[in-house]
Amino acid sequence: MIPHVETLIVGAGLSGLHLAMQLHSSGHSFQLVESRQRAGGRILTDEQSEVDLGPAWFWPAHTNMSKLVQHLSLQVFAQFTQGDGIFQTASGLQRIPQSLTEPSYRVVGGMGKLVDRICQTIPVKSLQIGAALTHVEHQDDQVKATFYSEKQGNFCLLCNKLVLAIPPRIVAKHIKFSPALSTNIVEQWRSVPTWMAGHAKAVLYFDKAHWRTSGFSGFAFSQTGPLAEIHDACTENCAALFGFFGLSADQRRQLSKDELDNLISKQIVSLFGHRPTQIRIHDWAKEEFTSTALDHSSASLHPQYGSHSTSVWDGRVLLCSSECATHHGGYLEGALVSSNQAYRLLIQ
After folding, report:
1. CB 20, CB 9: distance < 8 Å
2. Residues of the domain holding 331
3. pLDDT number for residue 100
4. Contact status, residue 160 vs residue 316, Cβ threshold 8 Å
């Protein structure tokens, strides 16, 4: 007999985890299944240095994030902005006042602590990792979901409501629907960029934060280097900078790790005068459950989210990711906005 659950959530990123936490706290049954071998989705923190390889910040306007970190008794600290920034062009370097930067906040220990704390609030048996959803079938008044995992092979779960807490573009690529969804719906989902899916992040480690003692904040914006945007990433455990690549996914793919490291080191020396002792690169464009080929030409501006369909089969299947949020889409705040939207629909 196929196991049955009231609500099946697929995807243990922030949206899926937060929805599971809300359902559990209100006494509703659920099962949460994640394709990766870890929870967190695009939240990923280097455990040793506590530097975030995915999203690192939230802002004062992100009220849901503020409430969640307080609820989970997490400590936060302001992003370091003391000192000047640097604007790098082909003509040279220009110092810019960092005071123009909007204040933002980081979680002590990294955003991975947020994932850990939420996981502690839900039953261990309610979270399964390492199982990818491959097929969804509408059967009268329920939905049949087929998964594949290396340990179990193919297995199925039945549910009254299915919540796909994964980006719409990933849903369109990886999951088969029976009966098939309309071409209009599929094309809507394919057209929604997955935020940061085409990007890569480099973390640069140093013996100490040389830029701070030289009167710089660590912020730099470059029109010429491999890293287009650089920020201070220091934690209690390390001195570090991180940077977003200006190179596209296709350009990065053509370069070896050593070649990328050399390009980055030269840029950092030209900006701050010191070579990093170690460089770690996390390329989200290489993540099967984050990125598709459509994401490899990264959006230069923040996309407008929330205009596509987030429900099919008369509400039996819901989409719930940051890209589905009616506001703050693409941010951690958007993931919480989206999970709140889904929660209200599930309990009404």
Report:
1. yes
2. 4-46+114-192+303-347
3. 58
4. yes
